[in-house]
Amino acid sequence: MRKIIAALFGILWSGVRKILGRRGEGLLKDLLEAVEDEEKAFVTYHSRPMNSLSVGSQSDEIKNQRRLAIVIQGPLISQNDFTLETIKIYQKHFSSAFIILSTWSDEEAAALRRFKELEVAIILNEKPAYAGVSHINFQIVSTSSGLKKAHELGAEYVLKTRTDQRMYAPNIADYLYNITEIFPVSHGYERQRKRIVGVSLNTFKYRMYGLSDMLIYGQLDDMLLYWEVALDERRFSDAQTQKAASTSLRSFACWRVCEVYLATEFLEKVGRTLEWTLKDSWQAFADHFCVVDREQLDLFWIKYNRLEYRWLGYTEIANSQEMTFREWLNIYSNLGNKQIPEKMIDEPRVAARHICPVCGGADSRHLFRDRNRRDNIDCSGAYVQCAECSLVYLQERPSWEEIIGFYSSADKDHTGNAGRSKAKELRRQAAVPVSGWKRLWRKVRFRPHSWPLERVPKGAKKLLDLGCGNGSKLFEFAERDYEVWGVDVGKDAVRLCQELLPQGHFMHGELQETGLPDKHFDYIRLDNVLEHVPNLKEVIKECRRLLKSGGQLMVYVPHGKSLSLRLLKGDSISSWIPFHLQLFTRTSLRRLLREAGFKDIRIYGYNPIPWLSLSFMQRRNRGRAVAEYSHSRWLTWVCYPIGWLAAKFGMGEELVGVASKL
């Protein structure tokens, strides 16, 4: 849907430009001013040419050229021929440099032929068996092989960059060389010949020993020493990863992954004893490294091509601010006169609130703020959207203990008169035989919550419902002779399941605590469960363990790009603070399932009948709890065709994911 909208805007913009010429750019200015009025913030833009033919700048001629190699590592980026056009620009700006493309052996032969025509050195690497945290091992392998090739070609200096980044500025080679000449390495570290130069992008002032590994320049021997490190084979559970990444900058640095792993290995090799204090980290930057601004290189990162200043904020003093050349120079020149704020690295990471539970990305944009309006709980929060995988999630996420407490105070389904009345109605439904007409209606009506539809020999297929609630969702499967199982954290819910479906198997607790055996189930259902759990990846991996080979996982989640969320934001029924921790999109749900090892992933959009109408009613009855007003039947049937149509255009209220274990 997003691509369709972008294409339509592209056609519209092309027509406007043809009619109005350059005056048409005024419409873009008007649009930005409208955004400014709404967001109460100034918005600027900067356009860069996509292809090399539109880049007319040239670097100055230098009489005595240093032999420079540019190592471009990573997978080929085919969108807009990004990597190919980047190399063409570098051939203009670095006319005497060796250009080395270090990529992977599984790249398509047709794509590689186009790079061979540019007469650059191409290295095809085999991917390591274990990628490491944030694919650090991929980077180590491809960079190391590129540096070895640079040594064979006789390079003196190396500029290491990535296939998804591009430098537009001319005279970069001369600029970086002059940096290493003007700022020599501090005395006492003879093994390091020249200063290592990094970039401000993802180099953080308060992250100890964390020089960004995206773009690094240095003398060849120093670069070989920097990148000749053992692959990081440490395995971390998702809980460990989340804890290390979200507590404090000290714990994050001591975790020693990615940039910190590379930099600390290098510092120890050149003879530095690390003290693991902010003061020593700043001293290490002053002694061994230099940081240049991304603006000085005119560095463009296509992965986040609409948000250049990812970490820059104006509303709070953040311990996640990047280290610029200005900050580095002040540390280099005047560290002895600075008050070192050691406490900054022991405070909770400001950026930790933004860590995406699916991809681990920290780049997000604010969507809206909401409060609890269903359960009379005094709780509010803000939803943000991940820039990398598009997951919508709560910015400030409660702990699991807090979540259990919220559920305890909000759970009225199984207590009091209302709970007893509901249980009585469910027992009555369970006792009524299913008519042939009802079975036919189930087959005709598109309701994926009833999948799989086929009847099986009694007990031949085992089906587990994780988060089974009161068990009502298992009636249909029991009727079709599936052996039904259920797990829920609510004791009352499990007790009711056992009363309604005595032939079933029900357990109280979290899935990881049940002790269920490997490869035990043919089907596992997660029906509106994943949006509630903080440990997404652990739950999905546990489901995969429990499934037989060929078994299917069926996931039902609120859609983070639904029509109601787009139109009504906090009034949408999907916005439920603090119980809906995350709202999925097709991209984020597919990524979660794929990274857990599932195959044959299919994602469907679906519109449960009452959801859209309940959202409009929530808007109309703003300020009152949902339980205080009844459903409107006429509004439900008016909204249903609208919701059905929205689902066809990728804006359904719910997403359904079906994946197989092969």
Short structural description:
By secondary structure, the protein is of the alpha/beta class.
Account of the protein in words:
- Helix content is about 35%, strand content about 15%.
- With about 650 residues, it is of the alpha/beta class.
- The strands form five sheets. Strands 15-14-13-16-17-20-19 form a seven-stranded mixed beta sheet, with helices on both faces. Strands 3-2-1-4-7 form a five-stranded mixed beta sheet, with helices on both faces.
- α5 (about 135-155) runs antiparallel to α7 (about 220-225).
- It is elongated, with a radius of gyration of 29 Å.
What tags apply to this protein structure?
662 residues, alpha/beta, five-stranded mixed sheet, 23 helices, 20 strands
Helix/strand/pairing category: alpha/beta
Number of strands: 20
Q: Helical amount among residues, as a percent range?
A: 25-40%
* Overall average pLDDT: 84
Largest sheet: 7 strands, mixed
The best one-word shape is elongated
Helices, strands, pairings?
Blueprint: H1 2-20, H2 25-39, E1 68-73, H3 82-93, E2 98-104, H4 109-116, E3 121-125, H5 136-153, E4 157-162, E5 165-167, H6 172-182, E6 196-199, E7 216-219, H7 220-227, H8 238-246, H9 249-255, H10 259-269, H11 278-288, E8 289-292, H12 294-297, E9 299-301, H13 325-334, E10 364-371, E11 380-386, E12 392-394, H14 400-410, H15 416-431, H16 436-444, E13 462-466, H17 475-479, E14 483-488, H18 491-500, E15 505-508, E16 521-527, H19 536-546, E17 547-558, H20 563-568, E18 582-583, H21 586-595, E19 599-606, H22 611-620, H23 633-648, E20 654-660
Parallel strand pairs: 1-2, 1-4, 2-3, 6-8, 13-14, 13-16, 14-15, 16-17
Antiparallel strand pairs: 4-7, 5-9, 10-11, 11-12, 12-18, 17-20, 19-20
Helix pairs in contact: 5-7, 11-13, 22-23
